[in-house]
Amino acid sequence: MDFAEALCWAALQGGMPLLDLPPGDAGTCLPAEGASLRPWGELTLGTQRSPRRLGAVDAGPLSAQAGALVSARRGSWSARATGAAALALSAEGAGAAIALREWDLGWDGRHASLHLGQYGRAIGPGRFGNLIVSDRARPLPGADGTLISPLPHLGTVGARVAGGWIPEERRGPDRPGWLLMAARWEPIPALELGAVRRSIFAGGEDGVPAPVDPWQVLLPTHPHVADDPDRQLADTDEAAALHARLTLTPAQWSTGGPEAVSVYVEHGGEDVITRQLGPLPYPGLAGVANLYGASVRWGPWRAVAEGAVIEDDLFRWYTGHRLYHDGWTLGGASLGHPRGGDARSWQAAVGHGEARWVSVEVEQVRRVLVADRIDDAVIIFPQEELRRELRLIAGRLDHPSGVWLGALGAARVWGRDFLPGTREDQVSLRLTWAAAPRTAPTCR
Questions:
Q1: What are the DSSP calls for 259-279, one per residue?
Q2: Model-level pTM?
Q3: Residue 332 DSSP one-character state
């Protein structure tokens, strides 16, 4: 089992820091052939709060978690589940919880796959998050179908369709459905072009709409409902993004060069509006946002820098739709970019090592609060929130005993929750252990 395989496997358990996987798409990790049970544990001290995979939260100055990943695979069929028990201590008292963090039943063929369950999904080029869907919130239940196929003289194309429901009562229709449609094209190995669209629809009970036109869910040529002051008519909440990633391999051209240099960009719209091409209507983007980044892998060194600008105006990213007020969130956490809307953020990290590695991560997030919207005017709360973080991470891959990680973090927050004249310092120390599998997983 090499470094990339171990990190790919350990990430399935949700215990890895944000940057321990190589930059870019981590690909698909399948359990090793046969059945296995692999325990893991985590201890956290401190008050720092950063979004981690699958909505993991360190609740309280002292928290401990323990769990296990149960997996099985036979040929193309696989199953896995991750459970966790958590205990948190704070000045208010103690709390405990037991949860099934992920579960997944799947079939993976040479060019296609089908999966059913509640597991993390991420579509896009980002390392810290994507505009449309990331895996930093609790996973949604649903099903995925993926098709990847080479085309003669045209490279490789892929398509993915996923759908399910948001399992909570919320402001607006409860338990609405969701749909993701994504496409990817690699005309040459160095270039990837992609698109993804997200839709929220139906739901019901006290928040009204349930009926919905299935054709409008598949292709929203009329994505807005007018003349509905009582909000009784069905509607869909749309968002979409395009992305491009260019990856060069200088080491193939000259001795001693970096193995990979990658640059990427994602451009998205929070809403889909109808545009015209002559007499033909077609969907277009409005309320745009952008994500951009670059990464380098050079021998034992890895580096990545990424920024995102998601500023709401008359269109609302993730929340505030006319029907689906809680929008594309679960438990208050964004299912898109982990820093949510109304924010400008950037992150950077440098890491060194393989079997033993260290990394340094820095992040800044600037958020504003939209207080109200009157016709075409947006009223911004005068106090913004500024957050700066530093994280030091050290890890070791020891095949008999597993993966060991230590993470020390510090943050300073000005104007937390948009309160004027406030400043707060936060620190945390997290220790994680995950047992190594007896045989390596399949990563592709």
A1: SEEEEEEEEEEEEEEEEEETT
A2: 0.85
A3: T
396 neighbors 388 (Cβ within 8 angstroms): no
Question: What's the whole-number average pLDDT of the chain?
Answer: 80
Collapsing DSSP to helix, strand or coil, 8 comes out as helix
DSSP string, 219-267: S-SS----S-TT--S---EEEEEEEEEEEE-GGGTSTT--SEEEEEEEE
Residue showing tokens 């049970």: 37
Task: State both tokens at 377.
Answer: 């005017």
All structural domains of the chain, each given as residue ranges with its CATH number in brackets, are 3-443 (2.40.160.130)
CA–CA separation, 125 vs 195, rounded Å? 11
Question: In 62-149, which residue ranges form alpha helices assigned H by DSSP?
Answer: none
Q: Smallest Cα–Cα separation from 105: which of 58, 142, 52, 158?
A: 142
Q: Do residues 122 and 144 lie in contact, with contact meaning Cβ atoms separated by under 8 Å?
A: no
Residues 293/125, Cβ–Cβ less than 8 Å: yes
Length of the chain: 444
At 130-142, the pLDDT tens digits run 999 988 888 899 9
Q: Give CA–CA dist 59/86, Å, rounded.
A: 9
137-172 confidence digits (pLDDT tens): 888 999 999 998 888 888 999 999 999 999 888 887
